[in-house]
Every structure is written in structure tokens, then in C-alpha cells.
Amino acid sequence: MVSPPTRYLVFFQYFGTKYSGVMETSNDQAVVGVQNYLEKAAQNLKPIVPIKFHISSRTDTGVHALCNSAHLDIQRAPGKPAFNEKQLIYSLNYHLKPEPIRILNAYRVTNSFHARFSALSRTYIYRLLMGCTHYSEIPVFEKDLCWAPAGGYLNVPAMQDAAQCLLGTHDFSTFRSLNSETPFQSPIRTVLQADIRPSSGFLSHHYEHRGLEFWELKFRSRSFLYRQVRRMVGALVAVGQGKLTPRHIKELLEIKDSRAFPPNAMAPPSGLFLKSVEY
To answer: What is its EC number (predicted)?
Structure first.
């Protein structure tokens, strides 16, 4: 008698620099997705049916996750009991080393649960470094983990004013990049949180004399459009540099055209982290 599959929700984190993004790619590519490594590790659990990770939140090349999530179904050989959560975490992490990918938690869920569609909200943070006049001044331990915009310091109060324009329900067409899903996706999104707060760097208290400042931009919404967060960050940084005003952010929203977004203003992937997926 074949036992039915058991569905699990897993939370996992990864250092995104070396991957093509979180989503699966063909294995013959030079750089593949985090999902490729997750599914390769899962095959060591000797399931009857190959295990597929259904990932809740897409992240691009170079974007990191403090905590992403996925669901998976595991069907074991007849007579074998379902894995308990601790066994699953330990086994997957054992087979993921030495990759910078870690399973944080696992929970058994009902077969109707879906990691992507059951999510209530997603929270992203973007790390900015101010005070660098040249990229060579970025601390070596912060490489690929923040963005140091040209020109040193930014007008944070102006950025905070502009961020308020992004709160609420809007047509975010101007703040999305176009991809194959664009024609099928509504551009209407509700941004529940848009904060800019001081933060800290890795061991930065040991080099306070350098006058570097770390700031975190935090955005929360049920879901985001393709590259929406990076475009919002880029526009807010342009406000901080004096290239745009808070009023321009409002106008960009009203234009509802991705081509109206200022050229080369999108923030790079390196400072972006998926912080959490809420259920």
C-alpha cells in the first residue's frame, strides 16, 4: 500500500550572489538557481516521486533571502513513515553543504496549503551605505550586501517624505520592469509599509571613525511586481541625491508607464534581501 505524500512548508535563506536567482534553471547553465540545489539535496531523501519545491517568492540574480519559503510533497516507500520536521531540516542541510543555502524551519501542512498563494504578505529590506565617495571605500565584508550610491551622503528626510507617496494602493506600472508575465499581471499593488531607518553594518562599530552610515529601506506588501522594489529604491535614492523631488515620485505613479522610469535609476540587486514571508 503506497502511503499518500506528506506536504511540508520550509523556510530557507541564501546568499544570492552566486546564483541565477531562486527559481530553477536548466542544469547545463554555468550559473543555476537556488531551487536546483534544493531539489538536488531533496533527491537524497530517496522519495518515490521526484521532489519539487514550490517557491513562494521569486528573487533575481544577486538578490539574497534572510527567509524565503516553499512547499514540497514527499512520498516515501511503502512502510516508511513520514519525516518529522527536525529530520527533514537536518537531512536537507546536510546535503546542501557547502552551498550558502540553509533550511531554517519546516512544518507539516495540509495538502491544500500553497507557499505562494497562501502567503499574506512579503517583506523586503534594502541596505544602503552612505559616506563612500568611491566604491573602493566599501568595507570588504559588505561586498555584494549593500549599495553605496555615488556622491556619498543622501538627503534622508526627503527620501522619507517621498516613501510616503508609495504607501497604499496604486497602479505601479511605472515601477515594474517588463517581462513575459507583464500582460497577464495586474499592476495594482498595495504597499503596507515603506520605511527608511538607520541600520548597522557587519562589525561597523570597529570602524566608526570612517563616518560610514548604513540605512535600511523596508517594504511590505502582499506581493510585488517584477523588480518593483529595486525601482522604488532607485527612485528614492534619486530623491536623496536631489535628482528627483518627492513630487516626482507621485507623478511617476500617475504616469503608469514603465518607460517613464528614469533611465539607469534602478537599484542594483546586491543590497536587496527578502526578509520574510508571512502566513
So the answer is: 5.4.99.12
Q: Do both 269 and 183 map to the same domain? A: yes
- Grouping H, G, I as helix, E, B as strand and the rest as coil, residue 173 is helix
**Each residue of 252-267: b (16+ CB within 10 Å) or e?**
bbeeeebeebeeebbb
Mean pLDDT of 208-235: 95
Residue 133 banded pLDDT, cuts 50, 70, 90: confident
Flag whether pLDDT at 28 surpasses 90: no
- 21: pLDDT strictly greater than 90: yes
Average pLDDT, the chain: 95
Asked whether the predicted pLDDT for residue 204 surpasses 90, the reply is: no
Catalytic residues: 60
Identify the domain containing residue 77 by its residue range: 6-109
Whether residues 125 and 92 fall in one domain: no
Position of cell 516553499?
70
Residue 116 maps to a domain? no
- Which are the contacts of 169, defined by CB distance < 8 A and separation ≥ 6? 188, 189, 190
Instruction: Give Cα 157 distance to the centre of its chain.
Output: 25
Question: CB burial class (10 A; 0-12, 13-18, 19+) of residue 73?
Answer: middle
Residue 207 assigned to a binding site: no
Q: Which of 84, 112, 100 is nearest to 38 (CA)?
A: 100
At residue 86, the pLDDT reads: 97
Question: What is the CATH number for 150?
Answer: 3.30.70.660
- Residue 90 sits in a domain whose CATH number is 3.30.70.580
Provide the residue type at 229 as one letter.
Answer: V
Q: Does residue 114 lie within any of the structural domains?
A: no
pTM confidence score? 0.95
